[in-house]
C-alpha cells in the first residue's frame, strides 16, 4: 500500500491525465482516420445501409437525460463510447415513435424501465406518444425490477405491466426536498450578501435560511399538488381505477410488496424476465428458442435520421431550442448563451426564407443581461414581420419566461413550471473563512466612497448605503421585467405584479392567470405560428437551432483549428480538475452544481426560486 497522501496521488494522476490530454489530439486524429477506413471498408463489403428486420420490437428505456434537441448536451470528454453515439432529443424521440407506429417491421414496444431522469412535462409528451402508438393497434409490454412513480407513469400505458416477484414498487405520493447551505456557511465564516425582489423569489433561500420559507412552501405545495392531481388522472384512465382510489392506495401505503401492486390492479402480474421474454415471443409468433429481434431508439435514429430532417418547402419555421441555464457570452451545449442565441436570431431574421420562429424554452433562467439581449433580438425579428410563438417544456421560469414574454402566443404543457417573475443578486463574503480559519487577512485602499463596489471582492462586507445601491439596481431590473411582461402580455402593471413576486406556477394555473395562452406542445406551437404566418400546411420546412455537431465534427474542428478548438480543449482541461470518481460525482453532482452556479453568477439574476426534485 502506498504511503503517499491521497492529495499527492491525485496530483500525480492529474499530471498523467494532463500528459495524456496533450497527446489526445494526435491519437484521436490517427484513430479517426483508421476508423474511417474501417467504416468505409465495412460499408463497401455490406453494400447497403442498416435496416429493420421483420418482426422487430422497439425497446425503450428512457434511463438517460433527454434534451429538447438531439445532441444538445454537455459531453464528457472521456466518455469515448458516448461520444460516438447520438443523444436523442425529445422531438426526435416522439417522431421516431410515430415512424415506428407506421413501420410494418415494428410489431410492438418493450418498455424496460427503472429510474427515469426526465422532467414531468417531457414525460407527458413521450407518454402521449406511446398512447398514440398503442392506439394504432400495436402492443406495448412493460417490465421492471423496480418501478418508481416516474417509471410507473410510463409503464401504466402498456397493455401488460409486469414486475419482478422480488422487485420494488414505490407508490406513496409526491415529495420534494431542498438542500440548505447556511449552516455550513456559518461554520466556515462565509456570509451571503443577498438582494432580491419578489417575496416568492426564494432562489437564495439555501444561502440565507436553514429551512423553507412559508411563501416558498405555499407555492411548492400548490404546484406539486396540482402536478400530483394530473398524475393520478392519467393513471386512472390508463388502469381503469378511480382517481380517489389511487389516492387512497398511495396515501395509506397499501403497496409494500410486489403482490400488493397486483392486488390493487396497478400491475398485471409478477414475472421473471425469462417469462416475459417468452410472452414476447408469443406476441411475435416466434419459437421459444428464437432470438427476439430488438432495436433501440438510437439505432432507429441512425436509420431514419434523414427522414427526420426532410424538408417540404422553401419557407422555414425556425425552432430555437433554448434549454439549460441562461448565461452571459456564448455558453456551451446544454446552456443558453445570450450572445450565441442573439446571433442565431439575428441570422434568422436576415434569412428571407424564415417566416416564423418558435422559441422552445426549457430553462429556469439565469443572467438577466443575457435574457434581455435575447429578448431584444426577438423584438427586432417581430419588427421585421417574423411571427414568434413560444412553446414551454418542463420549465420556463424567471429568465426563461422573460425571453418568452414578447411572443405572439405562448403554449405550455399542463405540467410546465413557469412564472417566477422576480430577480436577485448575491455576493459572498468569505472574510470570516479566510481570516478566522485560514489566517489570511486583507486590507483595502479606497479612492472614492463606493469604489469597492466595482471590485467585487469576496472579502468585503457592503455598508448599508452600498447595499441600498445594489438593492435599487435589483429593483430596477425587476421593474423592467414586469414592464416586459406587461407590454408583451397586454396586462396592466398591477395585474402583472399580482402574479409576479417571483412566484412559480404550474402550466394549468398559468393559463388561468394569463401568463400563457394555450396548453399544448411543440407541434401545436409550430402549427399555430405557421398559420399566423399564412404558411400552407405541409409546404414549409421546420429547421432546428442551434445546429449541433456530432463528435466527429467537433473533433475535426478542434484538430483543424476552427472555432470549436478552444471550446474542446477547455472542456478537456476542466475535466482534469476534478478528482472525484464517477460514483462520487453522481452522488454529489447536485451539490457541486449549486456551488458552481454561485461561482458563475455575474450581475443580477433571473433564476427559478428553487430546485425541487419531485419523486
UniProtKB/TrEMBL annotation:
<feature type="transmembrane region" description="Helical">
    <location>
        <begin position="15"/>
        <end position="38"/>
    </location>
</feature>
<keyword id="KW-1133">Transmembrane helix</keyword>
<dbReference type="InterPro" id="IPR047217">
    <property type="entry name" value="S49_SppA_67K_type_N"/>
</dbReference>
<dbReference type="GO" id="GO:0006465">
    <property type="term" value="P:signal peptide processing"/>
</dbReference>
<keyword id="KW-0645">Protease</keyword>
<dbReference type="GO" id="GO:0016020">
    <property type="term" value="C:membrane"/>
</dbReference>
<dbReference type="InterPro" id="IPR004634">
    <property type="entry name" value="Pept_S49_pIV"/>
</dbReference>
<dbReference type="InterPro" id="IPR047272">
    <property type="entry name" value="S49_SppA_C"/>
</dbReference>
<keyword id="KW-0812">Transmembrane</keyword>
<protein>
    <submittedName>
        <fullName>Protease IV (EC)</fullName>
        <ecNumber>3.4.21.-</ecNumber>
    </submittedName>
</protein>
<dbReference type="InterPro" id="IPR004635">
    <property type="entry name" value="Pept_S49_SppA"/>
</dbReference>
<keyword id="KW-0472">Membrane</keyword>
<comment type="similarity">
    <text>Belongs to the peptidase S49 family.</text>
</comment>
<feature type="domain" description="Peptidase S49">
    <location>
        <begin position="381"/>
        <end position="535"/>
    </location>
</feature>
<feature type="domain" description="Peptidase S49">
    <location>
        <begin position="134"/>
        <end position="284"/>
    </location>
</feature>
<dbReference type="InterPro" id="IPR002142">
    <property type="entry name" value="Peptidase_S49"/>
</dbReference>
<feature type="active site" description="Proton donor/acceptor">
    <location>
        <position position="201"/>
    </location>
</feature>
<dbReference type="Pfam" id="PF01343">
    <property type="entry name" value="Peptidase_S49"/>
</dbReference>
<keyword id="KW-0378">Hydrolase</keyword>
<feature type="active site" description="Nucleophile">
    <location>
        <position position="398"/>
    </location>
</feature>
<dbReference type="InterPro" id="IPR029045">
    <property type="entry name" value="ClpP/crotonase-like_dom_sf"/>
</dbReference>
<keyword id="KW-0720">Serine protease</keyword>
<dbReference type="GO" id="GO:0008236">
    <property type="term" value="F:serine-type peptidase activity"/>
</dbReference>
